[in-house]
Design brief:
Radius of gyration: 21 Å
Number of helices: 13
Order of helices and strands: HEHHHEHEHEEEHEHEEEHHHEEHEEEH
CATH architecture of the largest domain: 3-Layer(aba) Sandwich
Number of domains: 2
Bound molecules: pyridoxal-5'-phosphate
Oligomer: single chain
Number of strands: 15
């Protein structure tokens, strides 16, 4: 690493492993007006429950203004922790006590706390191939050795998982509609991975921000319900309410909880109690199930529009799986086209995507890219995919 001139400050060794998020940098270019951007990882702002938030905010300021503006418990707001425990019991088949719930600043903070508590220099950490870029960013500064597990359209392959399990600190898994690949683990795959993990004593970190966003049938139950004492579960309100709230949660086995809590205390004392109270106020009205159903209906139409557009324009130029949930299509370009090199041409042609390479902990594949289908209208999706197909074809790809 070249020395960075920060004198009189000397940077800690770990900063050499910190990098700007490639995606956040890219988004600055791709979000210019007039560009059809399928690059963002954002939920659609049209789904935010603005009126419910407005009313809940007024109620919090009327009924508990001083409590809502005061310092609060590091664990999180008690009634919200209780709500999370009950929600997970009802929707994930998890039997957890609210005392295991730690409210975090989004699940992204949960990932950082996991790194802080579980990773030493050189610790082996198993991740999917590809995996969520934000997790790589969170884990890397703790100087662990990230290893990409051979994965297929159903998640990590059991043989690869079993082969790598011994001696690893944990495996980071995304069973539902992974970011970036959009795939879902089958029931058989979940059962196999949970069995191997338990047998090898390999802890799992299960990240599930997209689990409620299924469009055809609900996914099989998660890994945390299969091995509660070996799985640390991360959830988020970002994709089902609004990401600007920065509200998520970690559910930890009781023995691990105190260390996560201490890590959280050092990081920020607690998550904004004002936001927690407002969100609890919204949730206790019971609106979430209907709200999620409305998001599903909306996103399903977008997913279908992108599937049709890809069939129409991209056949022969790339391969993909139709996602049954989440927000993304993952494309593998035919003929080894480099998606990073192609991006400036795509932006010139008025369309943007995220190249796939940054999502790999090891052995990046340049011929991959991620398309979000939730923030662009179904009509515009067709125009965007058509423009992208033209750019790929003009790059010297074989014609269909
Ligand atoms: C897989 C995954 N995990 C975690 C996060 C972080 O979400 P948040 O911190 O908003 O809860 C994201 C955000 O896009 C994600 O895709």
């Amino acid at each position: 690493m070249p020395e960075i001139a920060t004198a009189p400050f000397t940077l800690a060794r770990r900063t050499a492993r910190m990098n700007p998020s490639v995606i956040r940098e890219l988004l600055k270019v791709t979000e210019r007006p007039g560009i059809i951007s399928m690059a963002g990882g954002l939920p659609s702002a049209d789904t935010f429950p603005v009126e419910a938030m407005r009313e809940a905010t007024a109620r919090v300021l009327r009924d508990a203004p001083r409590e809502a503006l005061q310092y609060a418990a590091s664990e999180g707001y008690g009634p919200l922790r209780e709500w999370v425990a009950q929600y997970l019991a009802a929707h994930q088949g998890m039997s957890v006590s609210s005392s295991q719930v730690l409210i975090t600043n989004g699940s992204q903070q949960g990932l950082d706390l996991v790194g802080k508590v579980l990773i030493d220099a050189g610790s082996r950490v198993l991740v999917e191939t590809p995996t969520y870029l934000g997790a790589v960013q969170a884990f890397t500064p703790y100087e662990g050795a990230l290893e990409g597990l051979a994965s297929d359209g159903e998640g990590p392959r059991p043989d690869a998982f079993a082969g790598a399990a011994r001696g690893a600190r944990f495996a980071y898994v995304l069973p539902n509609f992974q970011n970036p690949r959009g795939h879902v683990y089958s029931e058989a795959r979940r059962a196999a991975l949970a069995d191997i993990a338990r047998g090898e004593g390999l802890p799992l970190v299960e990240d599930n921000p997209y689990g409620d966003l299924w469009y055809d049938t609900p996914p099989p139950r998660g890994l945390a319900s299969r091995w509660p004492e070996g799985v640390l579960y991360l959830g988020s309100f970002s994709k089902v309410l609004a990401p600007g709230l920065r509200l998520g949660y970690a559910v930890a086995p009781p023995a691990l909880y105190p260390k996560l809590l201490q890590a959280k205390q050092a990081a920020d004392l607690h998550t904004a109690i004002f936001n927690q109270r407002i969100v609890h106020e919204v949730l206790k009205s019971g609106m979430l199930d209907d709200h999620i159903e409305a998001i599903r209906t909306r996103y399903r139409a977008h997913r279908d529009a992108m599937a049709d557009a890809l069939d129409r324009h991209m056949t022969g130029l790339a391969t993909w799986q139709r996602p049954v949930g989440g927000m993304f299509f993952w494309l593998e370009l035919a003929g080894g086209v480099d998606a990073t090199a192609l991006l400036p041409k795509a932006v010139e042609a008025g369309v943007a995507y995220v190249p796939g390479a940054p999502f790999y902990a090891e052995g990046p594949r340049a011929d991959t890219l991620r398309l979000s289908f939730v923030t662009v209208s179904p009509e515009t999706i067709d125009a965007g995919v058509a423009a992208l197909a033209r750019v790929i074809r003009e790059s010297g790809m074989p014609r269909r």
